[in-house]
């Protein structure tokens, strides 16, 4: 049984308004996906979503969710937040200027907050390329696979330091890891493994 045309139009308009409000309607003709962006560009959106989930949520981890380009940008980034009051973590994936996914972490991941003054992914990539990344890519046909930002990982010298870790892969050589102090903008460590 179909609704009379008089009643169907207001319902259709309401459904379209809801879909547009939720970002579910199709994009206008000619509007393609937004270009890749550096990690910090999606942070405000992810942080606003996290604060609506838990007012005390803070960023503990950030990683590319799609391939990286030569400028340290990706079409999608993942941001993980921890809430002390809820004792839970929640991740947000940002793509095309909106939240593409939001999920509670099924395991406990209590971590210290990322420091506020970190360099963006493009600057971190430029440092890694100068130190060892460019040589690794040329010599081994390597590619940059992962960029992650967190505190206390991969740098035993100062576990409270927020660092970028860049991981390069190659089909014929062990991976290259480059750890960068995200506040000072200095390469702290490189290794292969």
Description of the molecule:
This protein is of the alpha+beta class and 193 residues long. It has a domain at 121-192: Nuclear Transport Factor 2, Chain: A. The chain has helices at residues 5-21, 43-53, 121-140; strands spanning 58-64, 76-83, 88-95, 98-104, 143-151, 162-169, 176-181, 186-192. It has an 8-stranded antiparallel beta sheet with strand order 4-3-2-1-5-6-7-8, covered by helices on one side. A hairpin with a 2-residue loop joins strand 3 (88-95) and strand 4 (98-104).
Task: Briefly say what this structure is.
This protein has 193 residues and is α+β, with helices and mostly antiparallel strands. It has 3 helices and 8 strands.
CATH-defined fold name of the domain at 121-192: Nuclear Transport Factor 2, Chain: A
**DSSP helix fraction:** 10-25%
From N to C, what is the helix and strand string? HHEEEEHEEEE
Helix/strand class: alpha+beta
Kindly provide the name of the CATH class of the domain at 121-192.
Answer: Alpha Beta
Terminal residue distance: 65 Å
Rg, Cα atoms, Å: 21 Å
Mean pLDDT: 85
Low-confidence stretches: 1-30
Q: Which characteristics define this entry?
A:
193 residues; alpha+beta; Nuclear Transport Factor 2, Chain: A; eight-stranded antiparallel β-sheet; 3 helices
SSE inventory with pairings:
Elements: H1 5-21, H2 43-53, E1 58-64, E2 76-83, E3 88-95, E4 98-104, H3 121-140, E5 143-151, E6 162-169, E7 176-181, E8 186-192
Antiparallel strand pairs: 1-2, 1-5, 2-3, 3-4, 5-6, 6-7, 7-8
């Amino acid at each position: 049984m179909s609704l009379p045309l008089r009643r169907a139009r207001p319902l259709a308009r309401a459904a379209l308004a809801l879909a547009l409000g939720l970002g579910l309607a199709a994009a206008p003709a000619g509007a393609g996906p937004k270009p890749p962006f550096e990690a910090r560009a999606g942070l405000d959106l992810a942080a606003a979503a996290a604060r609506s989930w838990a007012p005390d949520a803070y960023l503990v981890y950030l990683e590319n969710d799609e391939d990286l380009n030569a400028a340290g940008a990706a079409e999608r980034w993942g941001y993980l937040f921890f809430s002390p009051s809820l004792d839970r973590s929640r991740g947000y994936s940002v793509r095309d200027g909106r939240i593409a996914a939001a999920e509670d972490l099924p395991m406990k991941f209590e971590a210290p907050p990322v420091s506020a003054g970190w360099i963006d992914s493009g600057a971190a990539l430029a440092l890694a390329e100068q130190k060892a990344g460019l040589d690794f890519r040329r010599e081994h046909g390597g590619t940059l696979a992962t960029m992650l930002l967190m505190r206390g990982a991969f740098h035993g010298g100062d576990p409270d330091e927020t660092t970028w870790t860049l991981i390069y892969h190659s089909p014929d050589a062990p991976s290259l890891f480059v750890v960068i102090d995200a506040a000072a903008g200095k390469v702290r460590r490189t290794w292969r493994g």
